[in-house]
Amino acid sequence: MRSLVVGGVRGSGGALVDLVVVDGVITDVAAAGSAVVPPEVERVDGRGLLALPGFINAHAHVDKSWWGQPWVSYGGEPTTQGRIAHERAERDKYGIPSVDGTKAVLREFLRHGTTATRTHVDVDLGVGLRGIANVHEAAAALNGAVEVEIVAFPQDGVLRRPGVLELLDQAAAEGATSIGGLDPASIDRDPVGQLDALFEIAVRRNVGIDIHLHDRGDLGGFQYELIAERTVAGGLSGRVNVSHGFALGELSPQRRSEMVYQLGEAGVSWTTVAPVNSAPLPWREMRTAGVAIGLGTDGIRDLWSPYGDGDLLQIARGFARLHGLRDDADLTYAIELATTAAAPFVHREVHGLTPGARADIVLIDAENVPDVLVRAPRREFVIAGGQVVLRDGVLQV
Ligand SMILES: [Zn+2]
């Protein structure tokens, strides 16, 4: 058995504790100095740093970044279709997708304390399923430190590209936990057709669905309804997610309330990158209705946008600022969205500094959890599945 003690850290309650790790799992949380372990066991001196669970990035694109390469000036058109076309035309020039590029992104995730992610991976007629294979290879090269869950993502459309449905079906058969979708109305111009086809695969292959929905206003709202109806009909409660879904913040108050209730009843969850130009969300209503909210970085430094550094804390802070969160309970809630509350997005039963959880531990020099959110300080130590992957701010992998 491989053991580790992360000693003398502050838990959320403020008291100093030792976290005992055996074979990558937290087995005990004891008062500092009281854990009984053999003297030869490796020990990380926590120095009174604040301990948080590893961050869970619920919406990423680890296959398509130019991270680690010289700066790439943005050259796309400012529409979804314009960006798709730009990416397809330019990606080969930057070796996208590749194992090394994916590894560079996953290392940045670890540097910032992200130890699990749900990543959309492009599946199209050009790359086929090669991007998915790259992601598996890159994750394995880092000893599985970042636990990666795959969404097979039809970035270039579904029905408008004959052959893509078959690729999604194959990806689902080969282990993708979800298949993706993309603006069924504005990209395929056939919302019922795209959604029916995706739900048919999901039900038959027993996988989830995670749909990028950029369509705004009532057009987006209409697609929310189609998704919720099919989630109920297909028995997929808890396995369907809407990504971005800007429309939810743009509907009239009454329609929005009805929609939130419908999503809660259907068991549809929701992920956001909390962009600065989106309408605030009815997050309190969503919480009451049981609509799970996940935070993600989306793509970072890719052919869609030069922004993003892979730090989920920046996204949590963006969520807090977008919604005007100020009191300690709300600031703490934003951190929970990035950590414990995100467990379902990577199919974890338990995630936290608690016995039985994967040993994903982040140590930060901060006064308390709200202080972490507002300052987003450097991560001092990161332990991922029991491996020390960041020590004194320096990556070890
Ligand atoms: Zn995305």
Automatic annotation (TrEMBL):
InterPro entries, A to Z: Amidohydro_3, Metal-dep_hydrolase_composite, Metal_Hydrolase, Metallo-hydrolase_Enzymes
Amidohydrolase domain span: 102-389
This protein's record includes keyword 4Fe-4S: no
Domain of life, source organism: Bacteria
EC number: 3.5.4.1
Keywords: Hydrolase
Signal peptide: none
Keyword Hydrolase appears in the UniProt entry: yes
Pfam family, any one: Amidohydro_3
Molecular function, one GO term: cytosine deaminase activity
PANTHER family named among the record's database cross-references: BLL3847 PROTEIN, CYTOSINE DEAMINASE
Full protein name: Cytosine deaminase
Organism: Kribbella solani
